[in-house]
Amino acid sequence: MFDLIDAIFKHNYSNIPIYKGKQIIGVVNSKQILNMFVRLLQSSDCVSAAALKKIKLGDIVNINSREYIFLSTGASIIDVLTAYAQNPRLKAILLTRYGDNTAPVVAVITSSDWLAFSNILDKI
């Protein structure tokens, strides 16, 4: 958990792909991590970096593969907009070379990104 908090803080990430070996098994967002951190603070007097390092990812979230999809890097803006329109509960679209979990993620498009882009399109 410490590494996730560090990545969110240093890079301002909101959604982080989680790997098991070389395959992506899910996406954790900053709200899930914050909720776990708050529960941890409520349950103890002090939280140390050592304590955070001991927390397993499985203790933080229930990874739900319905909250994200893969698209290839060749996907168009229309593909992204269509994916979000068809699944409003989608938290993220993961772009990989082949559009599946066999290649590293090269970009994450979040629902916030989609909303910002939709607002831009509405103004055109």
Description:
The chain has about 120 residues and is α+β, with helices and mostly antiparallel strands. It has a single domain (about 1-124), classed as CBS-domain, CATH 3.10.580.10. Helices cover about 45% and strands about 25% of the residues. The chain contains six helices and five strands. The protein has a three-stranded mixed β-sheet. A two-stranded antiparallel ribbon has the order 1-2. The longest helix is centred in the first third of the chain and has 14 residues, at about 30-45. The radius of gyration is 16 Å and the shape is globular. The model has no long low-confidence stretch (mean pLDDT about 80).
Q: How many helices does DSSP assign?
A: 6
Proportion of strand residues: 15-25%
* Physical arrangement of strands within the biggest beta sheet: 3-4-5
CATH topology (level 3) name: CBS-domain
Largest β-sheet summary = 3 strands, mixed
Rg, Å, rounded: 16 Å
The low-confidence parts are none
Strand pairing plus helix content: what structural class? Answer: alpha+beta
- Domain module count: 1
CATH A-level architecture = Roll
Mean pLDDT across all amino acids: 81
What's the overall geometry?
Answer: globular
Termini separation comes to: 42 Å
Write out the CATH superfamily name.
Answer: CBS-domain
Q: Regarding CATH, which class? A: Alpha Beta
